Amino acid sequence: MSAVLDASFAVAVFLTSMITVAAPIVVVAAPERSEQRLASWKAWLLGKSRVVVLIVLMVVGAFLIVRGVHDLAT
């Protein structure tokens, strides 16, 4: 069970890393539309920053709780 959780977490981190690398490539590929797209992303992130941080912390907390319960059970 722990190996599955670790693998899932690793895949999630990898996909997030790929997105952060791919975003600038998309911006360079379409510079005429990139300014508007980045402005909309920035506005969304600034408007929802508390929710984004809350969700990230809840996911990390849930992962730690599940892992702790699993370690106690074994």
N-to-C order of helices and strands: HHH
Task: Tell me the Rg in angstroms.
Answer: 17 Å
How many separate helices?
A: 3
Question: What percent of the residues sit in helical stretches (DSSP H or I)?
Answer: over 70%
Low-confidence stretches: none
| Overall tally of domains | 1
Q: How would you state the average pLDDT, rounded?
A: 86
Q: Structural class, from secondary structure content?
A: mainly alpha
- End-to-end C-alpha gap: 10 Å
Largest sheet: none
Shape: elongated
Quick one: how many beta strands?
A: 0
The proportion of strand residues reads under 5%
- In terms of quaternary structure, the protein is single chain
Fold and architecture overview:
With about 70 residues, this protein is mostly helical. The protein has one domain. It is built from 3 helices and no strands. The protein has helices at about 1-30, 30-45, 50-74. The relative contact order is 0.10.
Structural key phrases:
single chain, mainly alpha, elongated, 74 residues
Secondary-structure map:
Layout: H1 2-29, H2 31-47, H3 49-73
Helix pairs in contact: 1-2
Brief description of this entry?
By secondary structure, the chain is mainly α. It has helices at 2-29, 31-47, 49-73.
